[in-house]
Amino acid sequence: MNLKTLAVLFSAALTSGVAFAQTNQAAVVEDFKPSVLNQPGQEFPQVNSQGYAKFRIKAPQADSVRVSLGLGGKGGTRLTKSADGFFTGTTAGPMDEGFHYYRLTVDGGTFNDPGTLNYYGSTRWESGIEIPAHDQDFYALKNVPHGHVQQVLFRSKSTNTSRRALVYTPPGYEKNTKTKYPVLYLQHGWGEDENAWSNQGRANLIMDNMIAEGKIKPFIIVMAYGMTNNIRPGTPGGLRSFDIKPFQTVLLDELIPYIDTNFRTIANRNSRAMAGLSMGGFETHTITLNKPDVFAYYGLMSGGVYTPEEIIDKTKVKLIFLSAGSKENPDRVRKAAADLKAAGFNAVSYVSEGTAHEFQTWRRSLKELAPLLFKN
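The structure assignment produced for this chain is given below.
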């Protein structure tokens, strides 16, 4: 997948999340409850059983308040001001299930909602809202053994910095001192950071629940910051200015050796996977093709596809997993997997129904990918 394709995917993400089709507002069910991501004690934003979101912002001196949802905060819901200085409003239609970024535009300025928690996305801290999903049980916090997500700091000679990564170790890692584990290197998307998969994606809870149910073999997950060449808003060329080489060096020459030295890993290609969402899929695609001796399992989540012609030695690839939301380009993912299968690859496609370029797609994708890893 090239950067132009990735930029198109990101552009599509800017307006994902809210269905702005014509909807009869009178049919909205008034069973709104505070979002589970609200700050303690805050009543708004609220969500109802249909997936609508309601916002209430106190801004007595303001003339205009708009709520913009999705990566980049495009589009939005204009709130109405009342005599008490509060602006209120409800989305024009139900939102997709799962997590969404959003921001406020108050008289032309960009702000976060003080009622909810903040999450790093779009190269800034954004407000977050959670629309309850029919299948949310797989990432729910349950009374099961839990693994740990810990911060590691490692020295990067190539960038002359100390860098940060988050490492998930499965339940029992500290006690099973002789057990070694395979490793999945799992990358975030454009404008996010190493916190995204555990905060927005709930990767650790997905793993804990699946391990407790006996659905997957325990493995380590490493989540690293992928914006190594430090592109920031306003950089000429934007996303197209991204250079994979600095991150590839950090990942292969510095982070992987650090993880293999400091954690009980099975340090070989057949026990190492790389996957990522959106831009993280672009990173995965490029690095796995550049360095086929490092990873045996590949996963692209809303991050493009592989073609049989790109892969020089099919014997080195144990699995290719391709996924997307049904509101993205699912046919491309399905066709790519079919072409790979016809060429002799172990390829699997997955389409998340009813979702777009958003975390519910990627949560579900991780749930589908995890049982396929390290089976051999």
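Interim note for the steering committee: DSSP finds seven helices and 19 strands in the chain. The longest strand covers residues 98-106.
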